[in-house]
Amino acid sequence: MPSLRSAAAARRRILGYARGRTVHLGSSLSVVDVLAEVLRRVHAADPGAPRSPVVLSKGHAVWALYALLAEHGHPRYTDAHGLPGHPADGFPGIDVATGSLGHGLSIAAGMAEAFRLDAQERPVYVVLGDGELDEGSVWEAAMFAAHRGLRHLVAVVDVNGLQQEGPTREVLDTSPLDRKWEAFGWRVVPADGHDADDLASALDLAEQADAPAVVLARTVKGKGVPFMEHDLAWHTATLDEARYADAVRGLEP
Amino acid sequence: MRTAVAGTLAELGDERPDLVVLCADARALALRFAARHPERSIDVGIAEANLMGVAAGIARTGRPVVVCGMAPFLVRRAAEQLRVDVAGPGLDVTVLGVGGGVAYGTLGASHHAPEDLGAVAAMPGTRVYSPADVHDARWAVRDAVGGAGPAYVRLGPRENHLVHAGDERFGPDGLLDGTLPADVLVVAAGATVAPALAAARAARERGVAVAVLRLVQVWPFPAAAVRAAAHGATRVVTVEEHDTGSGIGAQTALTLCGSWSGETAFLGIGHGPAPVAEQEGLFRHHRIDEAAVLDAVMLERGSM
């Protein structure tokens, strides 16, 4: 799957979901390139092997996941009707129900423990938000994964710098993220979260690391829609037809 | 109770090669399992939220998981992970909570969990057990791990007095002590079974026909068994080491409402301050001890 092209199509879908219902637009648009690359790797793996799980810990960005799954051919996600606002069990392509922030890294660590017991080498991917890192349970899980040497655990943080009520540095400053993760025993790989090649290289390094690894993906909230970029007003939104037309204009194929 | 259950857990580890046991720097229950199956025993440190999330992750791969810890920290600090990550998806995770109720006595309110059974019962698809001694504790742990979906077992931190015979056939409907129909039915579970049985003996000596329904599985609540046992009684007394508003008293009231009429007394733990005391002293303070149950039983006879 050519991830950038797919991500552009996914962005159009995300905006389409917001016609008539409220959607977490800003985060879905910031994380969609990251998720596109993660899903590309998962689906490119040996089809005979069990698929690697993807835990979207920042569950409010599920619209990016729905859109990419639609691009992968899941018809359930062609429109937003009946889709929950956070990942739920029982939907195709959704590996773990999430939504309460700070849960996903622990769940992914548990999966990595189980795969090690089963002598399976497959990676477990977990995608977190930078605002989500406020949750203490994230750091409980980070310590645990390093202590247990879960080297097939691959985290990606969508570092868009904005959380619900403002810049992360103003709400609760979690910087410096690289040194924090390193101090917790993780290998840290920085990446441009909107560059497919850079993300692919970063995830290659993360998967080959000798310890749990985190890709710190620098992103832009609202990426791809100029009037939404860096603007918290689009954290959640419903689009009327005029706004939708404005938003989607720059994303024509 | 802890020693007996530690043995049961080790046996289950032998029988179930996929079973994983997790704890959070409180290993007493898991020690024997860990000695036999070190690769399937994980201590996450003092981090209960992560503990429950890791349990969910392991269980999502198809392995059954047992989580051991102190009840107050499992059911309160890790409540969201237990509710959302374990109970919501119906995963095979059994939580063994040591010291629910007021069993930790003088350690104080932070270490008491008088709401644990009701809190977990309110989570979707859970089975909840409150055994009274080593016999029903062994059964409860085996039944919890052997069944499908999430379960919670409240365990005592010390060796409780034996109240059951070793060869009794435990089940979801509990066990009846005495004969039916009885004038007074007492419904008890866990550590209040002993005072309930003692009070019933004393009441019988005074000529009152009393039956005691000893519950081990408290959720799903055995409504049909309670309704059948209450049939013909003029008074029903419930006694529990639990918040009165969300435990077996409340469930008994819901069960009997509209289908039975008579006098009721619901003995349990309220929300007021309690003195610094061991479990027995706290039972006296909360009026869930033998004397309080006897009072509640005899009141019907007008003799107290």
From TrEMBL, chain A:
Span of domain Transketolase N-terminal: 23-244
Keywords, ordered alphabetically: Thiamine pyrophosphate
Gene3D superfamilies: 3.40.50.970
Pfam families: Transketolase_N
InterPro entries reported for this sequence: THDP-binding, Transketolase_N
Entry-linked SUPFAM superfamilies: Thiamin diphosphate-binding fold (THDP-binding)
Cofactor(s) for this UniProt protein: thiamine diphosphate
PANTHER family xrefs: TRANSKETOLASE N-TERMINAL SECTION-RELATED
Family membership noted in the UniProt record: Belongs to the transketolase family.
Protein name, entry field: Transketolase
Species, as recorded: Cellulomonas phragmiteti
Automatic annotation (TrEMBL), chain B:
Domain Transketolase-like pyrimidine-binding: 1-163
Superkingdom assignment: Bacteria
Gene3D superfamilies: 3.40.50.920, 3.40.50.970
Protein name: Transketolase
Source organism: Cellulomonas phragmiteti
